[in-house]
Amino acid sequence: MTDTGELTYRRVHAASPELLFDCMTDPEHLAHFWGPAGMTTPVENIVVDLRPGGVFETTMVNDADGSTHTMRAVYGEIRRPSLLEWVEADVQGGMRTRVTFTDLGDGRTEVVTHQTNVPEAYRSAQARAGFATSLDRFEHYLSTLDSKRR
Amino acid sequence: MVVVEDELSLVFSALADPTRRAILARLALGEATVNQLAEPFDMTQQAVSKHLKVLEQARLISRTRAAQSRPCVLETVRLDAAAEWIERHRRVWADRHDRLAEHLAALRPRDDEEKAE
Predict the structure, then answer these.
(1) Which of A51, A57, A72, B51 has the smallest set of CB atoms within 10 Å of its CB?
(2) Where is the HTH arsR-type domain (chain B) (predicted)?
(3) In angstroms, rounded to a whole number, what is the distance separating the alpha carbons of residues A18 and A22?
């Protein structure tokens, strides 16, 4: 990890914000890519109740041994096609995922996923920046450790 | 490295405080006593001790038994776990978007209609 270490993931896709928003919220679409690597998420294993407070659940199946992993989340803010938010109450004290879709005006859309998992860390932008900084430091610190271990 | 998720909660909530992050940054340079840690922060020893307790519970630091001064030492295992967790999540999203790109490419012929359903 050479960049910030903040839980932000940015990706540009050649599609409209509307289509990308639908891809992220329609089980038929989600089944094609939800993954992760080595796992598939059959459409019947996906529950989407697209409204604030609605359920977002996916049960991923391990391709190798058939074992399953369920993600349970509840939708927060929803603004098609620009914003999608869900919270996983079970994970690390309430991991919050915010996905924003920004039209780049040339047929492409920037998708930014920002994840925060600690309530104190996402209450203010300041705290968020501080949290990122701390992770920067750790990465730096860890890299010094790695060289020591050798 | 298998990590109980709860331990990560402790780690991340310990990290949510700027003073505690500063303490960890100081300890990254080498062990320090409570006195030494209190100095740059303009805090009472008691206030620092409180923060140290949180860091100790998250197992981000430990204190040596032997010496009277009980200097604090950074514990790297939990930091590794936190960094590893972040990297794991990054990989999940990277893979997800790779597949999404493939899916979009497959959809492209009907992309003009804008009706994905």
Answers:
(1) A51
(2) 1-94
(3) 6
Contact A35 B5 (CB under 8 A): no
Instruction: Name the 3-class secondary structure at B73.
Output: strand
A117 shares contact with chain B (CB less than 8 Å): yes
DSSP β-bridge partners for residue B32: B72
Sort out which chain A residues have CB atoms less than 8 A from B89's CB and list them. 7, 115
Strands of A53-137, DSSP E: 55-62, 68-79, 83-88, 95-103, 109-116
State ipTM: 0.72
In a domain, B83, yes or no: no
CB contacts < 8 Å between A and B, how many? 123
Domains recognised in chain A with CATH numbers: 4-148 (3.30.530.20)
- Cβ–Cβ below 8 Å for A9 and B97: yes
Is-contact A68 A60, C-beta < 8 A?
Answer: yes
Residue B104 domain-assigned?
no
Min Cα–Cα distance to chain B from A136, Å: 10
Query: Is the residue at B16 inside a domain?
Result: yes
Within-domain flag for B57? yes
Question: If pLDDT is split at 50, 70 and 90, which confidence band does A91 have?
Answer: low
Quote the domain boundaries for residue B56: 7-75
Q: Tell whether the model's pLDDT for residue A86 goes beyond 70.
A: yes
For chain B, give the percent of residues with pLDDT over 90: 19
Domain CATH for B34: 1.10.10.10
Tens of pLDDT, residue by residue over B53-83, are: 999 998 889 987 766 678 888 887 777 777 7
- Mean model confidence pLDDT for chain B: 79
Write down the pTM of the prediction: 0.63
What token pair was written down for A32? 């094609």
